[in-house]
Amino acid sequence: MKRRDFFRNTAFTALGASVLSPFQSIAGNRPMKNPSVRKAKNIIFMVSDGMSTGTLNMANLLLQRKEGRQSNWLSLYERNEAVRALMDTASASSLVTDSAAASSSWGGGVRVPNGSLNVNADGSFNKPILQKFKAAGKSVGCVTSVPITHATPAGFCVNSNKRSDQPGIALQYLDLRFDVMMGGGLEFFSADKREDKQDLFAKYRQAGFMVFQNRDEMNTLSDKEDRPILGVFYADGLPYALDRANDPTLASTTPSLAEMTKAAIKKLKNNKNGFVLQIEGGKVDWAAHANDAGALIYDQLAFDEAIGEAMAFALADKETLVVLTTDHGNANPGLFYGEQANRNFDLIQSFKHTNDWILNGTDKSYTPSRLIERIEFAQGYSITIDEANELLSHYETLDGDGLYNPRKLPFRKLAQIQEKHLSVGWGSMDHSADYVELAMYGPGSEQLKPFVKNIELHNFMLQTTGIFV
C-alpha cells in the first residue's frame, strides 16, 4: 500500500470510528443505545490519583522482590483478564489537568477549566454522574484516603466554582444524601474547625445518617443497614499507609483504603438496582507532589489492596464493571540505572516511615545529629552532616506546618539526597500531561477503545449500565 493511501485509509477509519463510537452520540453529551453492549449492574471506579506509570511499576517491583508476587493490577494484565487503554487527561484550560477538572471530565462528561468542579468556563453546570445514577435508582458513594470533600470524589458528586470550597462541598453532600461517603476531612465537618461553626456531624445525624469517626465504629456496619453512611476518620487526609502500618494507634483507629472499600461494598451491594462506587487512592498524588518515595509506593500498594477487595466482589458477582485508572500523572518518578540499583531499591522494603513523617516531625530545635538519627531510624540509611544542615536550614523561616504543601518543607531536597541511596528519581513536583493507564474488567469492558479521552468515560458508564439521561 502506498504511504499516502495508508494515511488516507487510516483517516477514513478514524472518522468512521468516531461516528460509530459506543462512547458518544453525534448530538453531544448523551450516550447512544447499543443493544450489543453487555450491561453492568454495578460499577466500581478506582482512581490512583496522580499515578505516573513509574508509580505503578515501582509498586509492582517492590511487591515482586518483597513477597514474590505481582500486584493485583498487574496480575490482571499478566492473566489477560483486563481490557487496557491509554487515556488523554487534558482539561478545558490546559494540557496538564488538575484533579478537579480531571474528575469532572468523568463526572460531567465535559472538560472544564482547572480548579472547578463540573462548572464550564461560561458558568453553566454539568450534572454529576452520581446524581444521575442516584436518580436512576442505584446506590452511590465515594471512598478516599484524602478528605471526602476533595476534588476527585467531589467531581463525581457536585457542582462548585472552586474545588477549594470544601466546607461548602460538605454541605452539598448533606443535601444529596448519597449512600456512602468515607475518607478524611474532619476539619470540614467539625464545628470547632469550620468558620461558620456549623456542626455538620450533628446535622448529618439529624438527617438520618449513620456517622463513623473511627475504624471500630465503621466495623460495626451491618449489611442490613439502610441509613446513608458518612465516615470521616482523620483531620485532613488519612495517614500514609506506611506510617499507619508502623503506628499501632493509627492502625487501630483509622481504616485502610481496602477496609473502607470492603465496608462500602457491603453497604451498597444490597440494592436490587445496583450501585456505583468511586474509590480513590488520593494520597498517592500527595506523595508524588512531595517526591516521597516510601509514601508513594506503599500508598500505591494500599490502593492495590483495595483493588483486591473490588475484584473479589466482581469475580463472585459477575455483574460488576471494575475500572482502574488515574486522573493524571504526577512527578514522573522511576527507578534508574546504576550498579547498585537493585540493592538500593530493596532498601525501601524495610522503611518504617515516610519523608512526611520525618520532615513534619522535625523542627528548629533539631541538631544535625538528631535529624541523622531520625532518618536512619525511619528509613535505614545515613545522610551526612552537611546534608542534615541543609535540610535544617529550611526550618529557620518556617511559618506553619507543611502538610500537603511540599514546597514549604524540604521535601525536594530530601528526595535529591535519597536518590543516591534508593536509585529513585523524579521529574518534578507536579502534574504531567502523560497519557495514563486505563483498564477495565467485567461487563462492558469489551467496548473500551485502545485510546480515549477522559470525557468519554462518562457516557461509557451510563451506556454500560443501560441508563440514558
From TrEMBL:
Kinase is among the record's keywords: no
Key word Chloroplast present: no
Keywords noted in UniProt: Phosphoprotein
One Pfam family per UniProt: Alk_phosphatase
SUPFAM superfamilies tied to this protein: Alkaline phosphatase-like
Record family assignment: Belongs to the alkaline phosphatase family.
UniProt xrefs under PANTHER family: ALKALINE PHOSPHATASE (PTHR11596)
Protein name: Alkaline phosphatase
Species this protein is from: Olivibacter oleidegradans
Lineage: Bacteria, Pseudomonadati, Bacteroidota, Sphingobacteriia, Sphingobacteriales
